[in-house]
Amino acid sequence: MKPLKLLVVGGVAGGASFAARARRLCEDAEITVIERGPDVSFANCGLPYHIGGEIATRDVLAVQTPASLNDLLKLDVRTHCEAIDIDRRGLRLQVRNTATGECEWLPYDKLMLSPGASPLRPPLPGIDDPRIFTLRNLQDMDRIIAAADAGMRAVIIGAGFIGLEMAEQLQRRGMKVQLVELMPQVIPPLDAPMTALLDSELRRNGVEVFLGDGIRAFRPGDSHVGCELNSGAVLDADLVILSIGVKPDSDLARKAGLELGARGHIVVDAFQRTSDANIYAAGDVVETQDRVVPGRTAVPMGGPANRQGRVAADHIFLGDKARPYPGSIGTGIVRAFDVVAGITGWSEKRLRALQYPFASVTVNDSHHASYYPGAKPMTLKIVWDARTGRLLGAQATGFEGIDKRLDVLSTAIAAHMTVEDLCHLELAYAPPFGSAKDIINLAGFAACNRRDGLVKHTETLPTDPAVQIVDVRGKPLADAYPAPATVLNIPFATLRANLGKLDKNRPVVTLCAFGKMSYFAARVLAQNGFDVSSFSGGLKANVDPRSPGKLPTA
Amino acid sequence: MKPLKLLVVGGVAGGASFAARARRLCEDAEITVIERGPDVSFANCGLPYHIGGEIATRDVLAVQTPASLNDLLKLDVRTHCEAIDIDRRGLRLQVRNTATGECEWLPYDKLMLSPGASPLRPPLPGIDDPRIFTLRNLQDMDRIIAAADAGMRAVIIGAGFIGLEMAEQLQRRGMKVQLVELMPQVIPPLDAPMTALLDSELRRNGVEVFLGDGIRAFRPGDSHVGCELNSGAVLDADLVILSIGVKPDSDLARKAGLELGARGHIVVDAFQRTSDANIYAAGDVVETQDRVVPGRTAVPMGGPANRQGRVAADHIFLGDKARPYPGSIGTGIVRAFDVVAGITGWSEKRLRALQYPFASVTVNDSHHASYYPGAKPMTLKIVWDARTGRLLGAQATGFEGIDKRLDVLSTAIAAHMTVEDLCHLELAYAPPFGSAKDIINLAGFAACNRRDGLVKHTETLPTDPAVQIVDVRGKPLADAYPAPATVLNIPFATLRANLGKLDKNRPVVTLCAFGKMSYFAARVLAQNGFDVSSFSGGLKANVDPRSPGKLPTA
């Protein structure tokens, strides 16, 4: 039998995983990897950290070379080689050597497209100024490092995951960083209250944050680039980072007539096959099944890319034993200075936009036993299907243990667990590692209390003066971080003796530092005939725990 | 309607959670908590850490007092009060004030038994010497602190979770620690290879470890206690800690004729009801459904206790809305100095003893992206049902991120996930937090490879000279940490060119540092017609990564 010819377009995450898995499954396949850039299989998620010097040596980011891939996997890797056309009927791919300009047609039996996604560069005035950078590969990284210097002013457009990583790393280089975001919050995939801690951490570290404002034009000058925002404000930059998102590199697929999704991603089935059965695709360029809410999704992350590449190789070589890709959940995490925040699954705002029937709750606790040294506060929000109780998403923010909670909850989402199931997760507990009732259990309890009608929650404090707002914190805390004047302080321990101070004919909202005592108070009041809601997540949920007391209002 | 009278025996984890939840569900219930000791709701898991000074102040361990519980929860807490008899027909409990000796009968509508478990104190010669301690409560802790002094010799009998915590903490106090364990390994619930790193960490820190040896007698002398072991060895101790396990405090239940399990635990149903519908039980004293393998189990940990107390209160007050306790998984974690190890679900040896059809695999990886500073090695073993692929247990050891992996895998077990599902967990990834393919994904991949017949694993190196053992590590590593003389070194990159050096008629075992290259090599050899197995987990799996190269042999 003739050896199978595999062509792979793109030699990073998805393509590299596909090629490696294919080789493990078939020693005699002819596997050729076409890579436009000079590098294959590099650690693109590490790029910002080398810019800031946190990853000291560049070498560690170049995970493999064409030579090492040939040694290890018998791959024919062609760098500086661009795929420019697919002859689907003829089963061949046209490639061009970007150094020599030479073109040739390479035959394939199966083709894998894993070209990735490009940073967006909108056609704004001045966009071509060489001081405006995007970050995709090692060469972009090198250019930014060459251009960046301590004391310079950097403007970062887009406060998503990469924007925040770059803000921290450029700050580490001694630059003055200004961060611009079109949405009224950093990390737009998260619900706004869950980003407040990140926001204050950025500002505390000297990053100037401009929210609800977008870039309108660049005004390149001799000494600097003026970044003109929609508001009219102009920020002066010696260096600009554009991190406003990515678009799939699907031009080749489009030209070949493969089916694309609404946002230009290649549509694939559960085995990563495109609309042409001989062509597979994986990574940032594809859209797959959404694993949480029925529909399609594109999650441009390394994890899904790697696993999709593997699924495609299995489908080619394992026959009936191949298992489908179950879809993507969308799990993301970011650290900015000391603060960490992340999300898995759907946010409240996405569900709200879809008019999906959901409920949510926010809880606070320490990341490990509060009596063990080093306990740090954390905030966890979960959203679930209001009809079935099924977990749809989770967001967490704090200082430590955020990744752990996201991972557990991502697993719970994948397993179609309900909020009831979260109550009974049996997580590892010793004082340095957790609590006997982990914050995830607490979130499950709070959700079930809500489901069972034991407590009503409010996410914002009412401004209607008819509502009685009761602060049930102890007096020292209430005095140190006073709530607004309209709030009555009745410490929880004295609440039962002071019910007479409240009017049963007017609604009550209880509040406290973390949302726990306010829940206790709501239970006492509800059982005494009051119409009461607990302020979900407490006063500290939405602000830096190092400067508590600020109140979000509706 | 007359208020419901609830009596609670035991005011720590299970009992305290029951009482607190009951109060939240019912303001007017009369709730009385009977506690033998002077403290309620104290942080018993923190005791060892205060002995070593890691938790500096004692106060933080006394989470609540009778007065605070009255303020917060309107509980009538009676400390120094022992429950001595249940009149089931008369619905009353006899209690004795341990200070005055006075007895009285208290009526109940519902009774909760949560007395906990006592440290085992076998009737050995000399056992009553006052220098022999167990650790259950704050008073035990105080006594140990009063008796312990730098320079003293401590003998710890039992190298389970508490034994290891005590070994570290007594070492912190400057004591000379000797640790004795009847089983041939520390932390007997784990499979032996997964404890090797803990073992070497204890020794590296100066703890003398005596395995496969038990205590036969104590020989109290004037200056010290001689601890006579089964082997005949005698260890001199100024202070002895007995940490060989616990037994349920079920005498009261036994006397009342409640159904007990084979090991003396109170048998409860899924709503924590004992064989008497008016009596509930929770915590270390009960046995519940095993959540992994059909049968009964007792997991003496804080997490299950707290949640069981809650389930019981829900059953009394929530009617149809009450949800059952789903059973216990058994999740445990321990830190000794810099090393962490833990387990969730069933171990290989327990499954083997049950003749349960299982399979297992061990993988190694970094706890986060290897190119990001501070990456630490970790080893993960999973066991699954060989027929269905369902995950039955996991063990992990390393330095950081152990709790995270155990928590994810405990969640996967609770969700009845299979090894296939582990491949597609979408865990939070940024370089400081994980890898694009997390070690959990890798374990799933390895398990599926085994399921699909792509690779055979061996856990031990064969001693049969007919087997060709091939070390596929690079030459520098193989030279630095040589494998035994019988091993042939063929670096993986040169394997395809050197197939002629191997005899196709003799079996081959491939080995490497971490079990990954040996798997790659096994794939190459299998496809070239060899009968080959990969040494699961690699050379470093079973030894301290700081002194690699030791080989376990069969």
Automatic annotation (TrEMBL), chains A, B:
SUPFAM superfamilies given in the database record: FAD/NAD(P)-binding domain, FAD/NAD-linked reductases, dimerisation (C-terminal) domain, Rhodanese/Cell cycle control phosphatase
Keywords: FAD, Flavoprotein, Oxidoreductase, Redox-active center
GO molecular function: oxidoreductase activity
Residue ranges of domain Rhodanese in the record: 463-548
Annotated Pfam families: Pyr_redox_2 (PF07992), Pyr_redox_dim (PF02852), Rhodanese (PF00581)
Cofactors demanded by this protein: FAD
Gene3D superfamilies linked: FAD/NAD(P)-binding domain, Rhodanese-like domain
Oxidoreductase recorded as keyword: yes
Domain of life: Bacteria
PANTHER family assigned to the protein according to its UniProt record, in alphabetical order: NAD(P)H SULFUR OXIDOREDUCTASE (COA-DEPENDENT), PYRIDINE NUCLEOTIDE-DISULFIDE OXIDOREDUCTASE DOMAIN-CONTAINING
Homology family: Belongs to the class-III pyridine nucleotide-disulfide oxidoreductase family.
Protein name: NADPH-dependent 2,4-dienoyl-CoA reductase, sulfur reductase
